Amino acid sequence: MRISVVIPAFNEEKLLPATLAAIRGAATAFEQRGWTWECVVCDNNSTDGTAACARATGAIVVFEPVNQIGRARDAGARVATGDWLVFIDADSTPSLALFAAITDQIATGRALGGGSTVELELGTPRYARFVCGIWNLCSRLVGWAAGSCVWVEAAAFREVGGFGTEYYAGEEVFLSRRLKSLARRTSRRFVILSASPLHTSSRKLKLYTLTEAGRFFFRMLFTAGRAAKRPENCDLWYDGRR
Length: 242
Hints:
By secondary structure, this protein is an alpha/beta fold. It contains 11 helices and 8 strands.
């Protein structure tokens, strides 16, 4: 068995080193099973030292010139050689326990893929932790994976067309829906893990005002996600603030 950890990265030289270090430690879970693994970083048109930072740790680096998270993840997946793909965001630090839980699910042979609940870093405002808790509840009840952690069989990922290029935000929800449909047709499962949440950054709360964030989420809500098809509506991801 071979696992490919894929990281989309746009101007992430500040946080990427910690993410890569965490992945190296967490990947012990794969090695304990006798599995091999690789790390693929997609440099999504960065203007800083993201690519050099990734190469310095031995990661495979692929370049994607169009700024789009789903496109970057798909570009990384295209060069990945693993039987399974684990997508982790560049501002997140997976634990050994989380990767072990993913490994256990893969080993059962019954899971087609899934995600994980998330946990925001220390110092995050209480209201943000509350919103994160609501997302985690919905994620588990509805079966939607957070984009910061998606694990999926490579063959299944390619069968459903990957993340795709239609959406500039929320693309993981639409991928989850396609994978859940495939799982039902093949008598397999799409599993949201919760025992060891993915630790992720809350930097957007520091970089953007509550008004800016609220404007984005209300725009998505009142257009039923259609606004996510235009990059100018998703500035929280693409305006370059880091």
